Amino acid sequence: METLELSTRSRDITTAASLLQNRGLVVFPTETVYGLGADAESAEAVEKVFTAKNRPRDNPLIVHVSDIEMARRYAEALSEVEAGLLAAFSPGPFTLIVNRNPDRGGAAAAGHATLGLRIPDSPAALDLIRCLGRGIAAPSANRSGRPSPTNFSMAWGEMSGRVDAVIHGPPCDRGLESTIIRCTPGRVEILRPGSVTLTMLEAALVEMGSDLPVVSSGGKHAPATPGTRYRHYAPSARIALFGNSEELAAALDALKNDKDSTAASGVP
Ligand code: TXA
Ligand code: MG
């Protein structure tokens, strides 16, 4: 498949939206990582996302919407706390899991009764969603098991030949996937940590007059997202971890002093 490179200018956004409308796939920038988008209301388009990513079919996709009004179309109902948290952290690196409107977004939900909703803080992403007029189902634009792309060239390297277009936007200023949370009657659960932290969630709840506790999926009672069952973050290079900056500096010095480039490429 030939892949178009598009800019974030309005003419190109219109082209991207019409590709989506015709059940195509478009990679687009967000503030967290690049997303691999499909029309959230087309089961045929969403199916192509799973194929392009080589993603397990039971791992649901987040639906990206432009505002709370659009979010409400995909939710069965938003509780006061859910609407309050969405308003507090959107647009931004924040995904809310809600009970799904049974008539919409079924393919993205991958058989689950819930759906993840997010309003990205990226002008190009918001323009694209508004231009399409519907939600965009989008996982990170990497092939399954590989790191999420945080700039255009990574996204292009992962997805050219597999999608209809890649929008050439700016590098992602967050570079870390969104925080995913779910509200239950008794508490707010963080299913995936991200830039919106537990402390920030607690402060927002206090501000809203809610006394719900926030629990992290690191805790023993909170469930994780389906995606965390699979292999993640597997860069195709060797990685070394250092306990402190001195150890790292010493390893870098050793590399500099090593004139044998083949040995140096394997260390550290
Ligand atoms: O920042 C982000 O969230 C990026 C950008 C593109 O928006 N998207 C992203 O999507 O990271 P993805 O598919 O790579 O990761 C989404 C995670 C997966 O682990 C998936 O299992 C989980 O969210 N998830 C999606 N829908 C869910 C649901 N209904 N219930 C529980 N977990 C869900
Ligand atoms: Mg991902």
Characterization of the model:
Its main location: cytoplasm. GO terms for molecular function: ATP binding; double-stranded RNA binding; L-threonylcarbamoyladenylate synthase; tRNA binding. With 268 residues, this protein is α/β, with parallel strands linked by helices. The protein has 2 domains: 4-224, DHBP synthase, CATH 3.90.870; 237-268, no CATH class. It contains 10 helices and 11 strands. The chain has an 11-stranded mixed sheet, with helices on both faces. A hairpin with a 2-residue loop joins strand 9 and strand 10. Helix 1 crosses helix 6 (123-132). The longest helix has 13 residues, at 245-257. The radius of gyration is 20 Å and the shape is globular. It starts with a strand and ends with a helix. Threonylcarbamoyladenylate binds at residues 30, 32-33, 35, 59-62, 95, 97, 109, 112, 114-116, 118, 120, 138-140, 177-178, 180, 191, 225-228.
- List cofactors, ions and other ligands: threonylcarbamoyladenylate, magnesium ion
Number of domains: 2
- CATH fold call of the largest domain: DHBP synthase
State the major sheet.
11 strands, mixed
